[in-house]
Design a protein that fits this description.
Layout lengths: L6 E8 L10 E6 L2 E13 L8 E10 L7 E6 L2 E6 L2 E6 L9
């Protein structure tokens, strides 16, 4: 793994939902289109200062562009199932960035 390929981002999910694990896949979902496929190389739960209804994880992942054709997205209303190579994967939905005051 080359360090310059690692992408770091924050992933937030509701408490009680299963977080991604190392070597699992995550897929960027943009509408009905498949974005980038990532393989998780490290994950850790972030400490939070205030009580919120979701858990935040710091994730380091490497892009796997060769797997984009093997990713399948199925939508059912607001819910979305994602698979890569027949294995369940985690969907990534990007939130708009906010300017810091």
């Amino acid at each position: 793994m080359e360090p310059h390929l690692v992408r770091k981002f924050t992933y937030q999910i509701l408490w009680g939902c299963v977080p991604p694990r190392v070597n699992e896949y995550m897929v960027s979902v943009n509408g009905k289109k498949t974005g980038t496929v990532y393989r998780v190389v490290s994950i850790r739960l972030m400490k939070q200062r205030d009580m919120v209804d979701c858990a935040r994880y710091a994730i380091a992942a490497v892009p796997c562009p060769e797997l984009k054709e093997l990713a399948v997205i199925e939508r059912d209303g607001d819910y979305c199932d994602v698979w890569v190579k027949g294995e369940p994967a985690h969907g990534i939905f990007w939130l708009p960035r906010k300017k810091k005051p």
